[in-house]
Design a protein that fits this description.
The protein is an alpha+beta fold. It is built from 2 helices and 4 strands. The termini are far apart.
């Protein structure tokens, strides 16, 4: 089992984020959104020094809804491809 990484450790220097939902569906008190997340970061990210880097990765968001209010949210992303893309950017031109 892999250890979870706190969002603030990954996105400490997040400068922008945009989420695009390609599809969505609702069932039994849940809403599921599938799409992509485009982030721009700078500084130290996952131990890598980046001047500035923009990348996109797949994202699934699952909301649990009760009495018309969101009571929980789970975000699922492919951490391995996210990390690989950041490493490529850092090794290339520093994310410039």
């Amino acid at each position: 089992m892999r250890a979870l990484i706190a969002p603030q450790a990954v996105f400490q220097d997040l400068t922008s984020i945009a989420i695009d939902s390609d599809s969505r569906f609702f069932f039994q008190g849940h809403a599921v959104f599938a799409g992509s997340c485009k982030c721009t970061v700078r500084g130290k990210v996952l131990g890598l020094e980046l001047e500035q880097a923009t990348f996109t990765h797949g994202l699934i968001v699952v909301l649990q809804i009760k009495d018309g209010k969101v009571v929980s949210q789970r975000d699922h992303a492919d951490h391995d491809s996210f990390t690989a893309e950041l490493k490529t950017l850092a090794e290339g031109d520093g994310g410039r």
